[in-house]
Write a structure and sequence with these properties.
Layout: E1 11-15, H1 21-25, H2 38-50, E2 56-61, H3 65-78, E3 82-84, H4 101-107, H5 109-117, H6 130-147, E4 152-156, H7 161-170, E5 197-201
Parallel strand pairs: 1-4, 2-3, 2-4
Antiparallel strand pairs: 1-5
Helix pairs in contact: 2-3, 4-5, 6-7
Length: 209
Amino acid sequence: MKIYDRADGSKILLVRPGATEFDEQGRIIGTLDIPLSELGLAQVEELAESSVGLDIKAVLSSPSLAAQQTAEVLGKKHGRKIKVRNALRNIDMGLWQGKELEELRANQPKVARQWEDHPETVCPPEGESIEDVLPRVQKLLLKLQKKHRAGTIVIVVADPLAKVIASLLSQQAAPEPEAAAAPDKDSPVEHSGCGKMDLLPLSVELADV
């Protein structure tokens, strides 16, 4: 958990859903609706326990099944009903969805490398680019920034959109893609970011993004 303090105390707890079978298999998920695996459910329970003590004011979730399952556990722990927001729909990975990352690297090495190194320059076939999703994400963050002046707002969303949100909030360079965070064969979930969370300041200069 990374903590960034603000003078007014408002924060966003950016939560990645627990693992799914696709995460464990190293497959690209995008907008596919995949439920949490047994490992993912265990990760979420552990994550909820680690969030005890935070002043949670709201729990927002991506429409994906894994995100909603994760959000429900967190919401129950803090006595909050979850709010599903279409603006948090993950980046559509088009024809890449469901494929193993290694398959993409083998069949389209140049495109895969460009996606890993410069994701902002690539749009998956029949999918969305990072530029495509920025307006809806920026609009949601601005609304939250105006509405919440204190406490912590939970946002549950998977990578690569989680990285886009973290980048906007932290004012960093373009985020790394889902592919760069894909699991390896020896440790299928450890490096995927599943069930992880970052505590970020609810502050962003949207006009500069």
